[in-house]
């Protein structure tokens, strides 16, 4: 990230919207744009912590999900649903993690159409170590005051529920 800008470009954009006669949508545009920029900042922080582990956030999420699974393995289609990503994204992540020796594929014992993805011992260790790094370097100091974190969780959950993300 470069040097801080002298002014908030999103506030400037909001004023531009208002000046163009779009006052009714200026605040929502600014809020949405701010969320998108915040996501970029947070992802950059996360990716910087994960880089020494040779992981992207997408691959980390899969390792973490498998680490929480009771048997350390899940059907690939279930992993896709839980991560809320397209099956192709899970396949790509599994390909990379498999090449790194962190996960394995195996046939489902009772459903021949289903492939399981499971952690190797190295994958379990990587999930623990990378999670510890994220907890210490990102999640313990997210950049939001604690009261704001709870408000953000509520506001964003309400939005996601209304958008059909979950019941």
Would you write up a description of this structure?
The chain is mostly helical and 167 residues long. It is built from 7 helices and 3 strands. Strands 1-3-2 form a 3-stranded antiparallel β-sheet. α1 (9-19) runs antiparallel to α2, α2 (23-50) crosses α6 and α4 (76-83) crosses α5.
Task: Tell me briefly what this model is.
It contains seven helices and three strands. The protein has helices spanning 9-19, 23-50, 57-68, 76-83, 87-99, 121-139, 146-162, and strands at 73-75, 103-107, 115-119.
Helix content: 55-70%
Main beta sheet strand tally, sense and closure = 3 strands, antiparallel
Going across the biggest sheet, name each strand in turn.
1-3-2
Mean pLDDT: 95
Q: Tell me, what's the shape?
A: elongated
Name the poorly predicted regions. Answer: none
How many H/I helices? Answer: 7
Quantity of strands, as a count: 3
């Amino acid at each position: 990230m470069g040097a801080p800008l002298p002014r908030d470009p999103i506030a400037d954009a909001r004023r531009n919207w208002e000046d163009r006669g779009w006052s009714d949508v200026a605040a929502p545009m600014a809020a949405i744009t701010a969320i998108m920029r915040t996501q970029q900042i947070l992802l950059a922080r996360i990716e910087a912590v994960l880089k020494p582990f040779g992981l992207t956030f997408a691959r980390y999420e899969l390792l973490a999900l498998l680490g929480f699974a009771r048997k350390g393995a899940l059907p690939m289609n279930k992993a896709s649903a839980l991560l809320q990503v397209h099956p192709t994204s899970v396949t790509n992540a599994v390909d990379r993690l498999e090449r790194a020796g962190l996960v394995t594929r195996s046939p489902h014992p009772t459903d021949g159409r289903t492939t399981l993805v499971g952690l190797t011992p190295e994958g379990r260790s990587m999930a623990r170590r990378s999670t510890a790094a994220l907890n210490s370097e990102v999640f313990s100091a997210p950049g939001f005051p604690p009261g704001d974190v709870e408000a953000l969780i509520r506001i964003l959950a309400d939005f996601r529920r209304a958008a059909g993300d979950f019941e």
